[in-house]
Specification:
mainly alpha
Length: 287
């Protein structure tokens, strides 16, 4: 199987020397690779991680291996098999600072894809204590942009609708991830908003409400609405979060309500591009 994976990587890179060195796999192995003779996807997953974590493999081959792994775990059964075949520790290890950035990006992406809307994978990942800690450490604007965005994606996927994951995330300082900067690209703001929305997906308690007030998060939401270059996706997300807070019984101050009403009025010229449902729902907040 390892020879088969090396052959596959060589074919994708087009490296003639590597192709010659890998040789030609036997027909039975090719049938296995292309699903003609009963695919053994867990074995392919294992071999991909062997290549990805092999210090003697070239960076290009490691990237291709993780890309192949990423495609495999888009299948729900394969995502759940990460735990069954004990691959989570190896994937989590790829988030470490000494690992090349491109591999860290793949690792964060793999985590996000595997746990998204997948309670079994969420629980399995959470059982590996270092995983969540590594994600939180990686989700900082000082990291390369693509890595930062993927880490935010992985976090929001992990904690959404999962009370245990959200509690552990907040207990290890997860609120620091909800860091707004309106000078950055809209995609970054959207990812931060997604983390906030994921935190609220598990409900609102006194501690969450206290943090939202103390961190001035409502004012940050208002600033997104008041951006000189408004982004429809960001505005929609803010409207949804404000409505979410209202439904959960969040106690807005009179000043916050006034600012929200004024800010929403300021984006009504975009109403044809916004979610009509969110736009109508948010009006009930100050009604």
């Amino acid at each position: 199987m390892e020879k088969l994976l090396q052959w596959s990587i060589a074919q994708q890179t087009g490296d003639k020397e590597a192709i010659a060195k890998a040789g030609t796999p036997d027909p039975k192995s090719l049938d296995q690779l292309f699903g003609l003779g009963g695919p053994d996807e867990p074995a392919l997953m294992k071999q991909a991680i062997i290549v990805a974590t092999n210090p003697e493999a070239t960076l290009e081959n490691q990237e291709i291996a993780l890309e192949n792994f990423e495609m495999l775990i888009e299948n729900l059964d394969n995502a759940n098999n990460i735990e069954n075949i004990k691959l989570w520790p190896s994937i989590i290890s790829q988030l470490e600072p000494h690992v090349p950035t491109s591999l860290r990006v793949y690792a964060a992406s793999i985590i996000g894809i595997a746990v998204q809307n997948n309670p079994l994978a969420q629980k399995a990942f959470l059982s590996h204590e270092q995983g969540l800690k590594s994600l939180v450490l990686t989700a900082t604007p000082t990291e390369p942009k693509e890595l930062y965005l993927k880490a935010l994606f992985a976090i929001s996927s992990l904690i959404r609708n999962d009370e245990e994951a959200c509690k552990k995330f907040l207990d290890i300082g997860g609120w620091k991830v909800v860091e707004f900067d309106n000078t950055v690209a809209a995609k970054q703001i959207l990812r931060v908003l997604s983390v906030l929305s994921a935190i609220l997906s598990t409900g609102l308690d006194a501690n969450k409400e206290k943090e939202i007030h103390s961190r001035g998060i409502v004012a940050e939401l208002v600033s997104v609405l008041q951006s000189s270059e408004p982004h429809v996706g960001c505005i929609d997300k803010v409207l949804n979060i404000v409505t979410q807070l209202h439904r959960l019984g969040f106690k807005f101050t009179a000043s916050e309500l006034e600012q929200l009403e004024s800010s929403v009025s300021g984006v009504l010229h975009l109403k044809d591009q916004l979610s009509e449902e969110d736009l109508e729902a948010v009006k009930t907040v100050w009604a």
